[in-house]
Amino acid sequence: MDQQPLNMDHHWLPFTNNKLFHAEPQLFAKASGVRYWTPEGREILDGASGLFCCAAGHGRREIAEAVHAQLLELDYSPHFQRAAPISFELAERLSGILPKGLDRVFFGSSGSEAVDTAMKICLAYHRAKGEAQRTRFVSRAWGYHGVNLGGTSLAGMVGNRREFSSVTCDVVHMRHTWSDEQRFTRGQPDDGAWLADDLEELCKTYGGETIAAVFVEPIAGSIGTIVPPKGYLQRLRAIADKHGILLVFDEVITGFGRTGAAFASQEFGVTPDVLTMAKALTNGAIPMSAVAVKTEIQQAVIDSIKADRPELMHGYTYSAHPVACAAALASLNIYRDDGLFARGQAMSDAFLDAVFSLRNLAQVHDLRGYGMISGIQLTPGKTPGEKGSLVQRLLFKEGLHVKATGDALIFAPALVTTEDEIGAMTDILRKVLGRGE
Ligand code: PLP
Asked: Which PROSITE patterns does the annotation name (predicted)?
């Protein structure tokens, strides 16, 4: 029987040029390991772990079975005034791998929800401590913190905020940490810790006592992998402490072994007060996110409310969804049993060797990378973003999926990728990026 052509009129695709997509659809119909297949059966190597979610590769049977069993056991339970045992189990497991001291966990369904939740927790904490005037946030140019209104306010990528300025809240920005002199730096740049002094400057301008929290991605992922200069995060920590400002690490991409350790906080030796995570929390299988906070932050909020009412007037219908909890526990088991974070760390050298072998190609302006995440900055095209979009489509035609943001590609394969698979992915990059204009 002939298959009906797919009607694509009704699904409005996110972060997509829908007209271009309809003209040139890029569809995934099946996935296993580090491979996707199109509906026609063409193989596409996954050079982006989906969207930095599938750290353990696609189609993990352990997760599928845990989800199936949980759906039959307890498919849904509300978490307002009720709870399911599995969410406490997950929170305890997470606190075992989180940076020491961060052991209270609030669940949501997406990275964007985690970010907005973290903002509200910061405000609630300061109010509980008698500092309700701390209502301003600091973030960084080129930062990405999801697309809800809090995260849009924190955004440092102009395209993501320009059209929504009427609904954004009070956020001031530090400079990003990339400079042209640091092109082709592998790992952390030596110079640039001083850029953290932007926080000190903002405290002078606005009053440190008005600032609730500073949000940064330890490695700025979505913009194209900007690795923090040596000492930068430490300096940010010291300035935040000096002014009583909470330090929030958005680890939605960097969590779960992407940098080598469980979290980038541990890899870079800086403990934030609040940490957001999502994506690889469930290996991408079921939407889920979490915000981890220091014990004393939750304690302060809980202790500040004497009446019989929720201490934090915040939560989602799908907070701690039992099926998502089951997927997360199964993912954490894989990470532990397969020693996946150590595997990613061990693979990093071969991965970065492969990335940096692209250095002299016609379309490459800069290369950056750390652990199992890298950024390939393309030489600029006629208008910003045009080249990135074109190259991403060419790579798809040649059999490789990577993420493109503006004119940067983000190449971050699963932690289970073999050296041969990294080689095959890099060969496709070499073929496409080596072409002239
Ligand atoms: N924060 C960071 C650092 C991210 O990279 C992302 C997504 O890429 C988000 C937040 C938003 O996550 P989600 O798309 O799940 O809402």
From this structure: AA_TRANSFER_CLASS_3
pTM: 0.97
> Within 6 Å (CB) of ligand 1, which residues are found?
110-112, 115, 144-146, 217, 221-222, 250, 252-253, 278
User: For residues 314, 164, 112 and 380, what is the CA-based torsion angle, rounded to 10 degrees?
Assistant: -170
Q: Which domain-ending residue is among 311, 337, 363?
A: 337
- The type of residue at 243 is H
Burial of 317 (0-12, 13-18, 19+ CB in 10 A): exposed
Q: What's the pLDDT band for 265 if we cut at 50, 70, 90?
A: very high
Ligand 1 pocket mutation pick from 252, 258, 288 by most atoms within 8 angstroms of CB? 252
Q: Are residues 354 and 333 in the same domain?
A: no
Ligand 1: atom nearest CA of 52 is 8
Domain C-terminal end among 308, 337, 366: 337
Taking the centre of ligand 1 as the mean of its atom positions, its distance from the CA of residue 315, in whole angstroms, is 18
Q: Domain of 26?
A: 18-56+339-433
Give 414 Cα–ligand 1 centroid separation in angstroms: 17
- Considering only residues 144 and 168, tell me which one the structure prediction assigns the higher pLDDT: 144
Shared domain for 90 and 109, answered yes or no, is: yes
pLDDT at 2: 59
